[in-house]
Request: fold
Amino acid sequence: MKPPPCLSAFALGLLLVAPLGAEDYPLGPDSLPKDGVPKGTVTKHVWKDSRIYPGTVRDYWIYVPAQYDGKTPAALMVFQDGAGFVNPNGHTRVPIVFDNLIHAGEMPVTVGVFVDPGVIPNAKGPGGRKNRSLEYDALGGDYARFLLEEILPEVGKTVAVSDDPAMRAICGNSSGGICAFTVAWERPDSFGKVVSHIGSFTNIRGGHVYPSLIRKTEKKPLRVFLQDGENDLDNLHGHWPLANRQMAAALEFKGYDSKFVLGTGAHSGQHGGAIFPETLRWLWRK
Reply:
């Protein structure tokens, strides 16, 4: 069965077709460099002075669009597992997509901040101890505080970003996806937009409670995009497609500005990357 094009499926808000391979979610023209489009700059940095996650070291990157004038505060979008999102050959290729959509006037002038999870280099084991699950899967406000009290003030030393939560988004894949939601859930005064790809809304560290919390908590000023695949994980922590369906149902029940796109893929960033330009158009629409 031949699938419909990704963007038309996105417009329908739901993709339910016969099982596909990764090659069936190709990148479209907005994810590829275009002649005549000004290119933003990407700089790499290291953060090793965390008070909230002491002993950790991590890389992070800052993308500044060519249209940033140094005077007007830009919109902001933060990405967990930053190395994958900033990679020009990765699934999502965020700087390229940002270049194209900002140039086309389809999203605001937006600074991208790409943050890797921390590593404790002196801990036992090859490469030190990974802090990713502790940071990303845990509920509560610690990771939001880490961004708001440590990383973003450092970013603010070189580029001005808006304080308006409607102009601030956060995104991630898998555990980074639930982390993105947690940050906005805890601090809707600072982040008003969420993108979660293959989000781990399962019981790794208690994230399975979110659908009930959403239903029973006063609606927050959030816009939420969810993506998952029918063949995503099913293990001792939970069933990823079911968990994302429950999240989508709870958000719809509560009247959130939300969208859920279900593909046929497994635990991969391929589908989310393929529809990312259209996701941004939806996320930043007026």
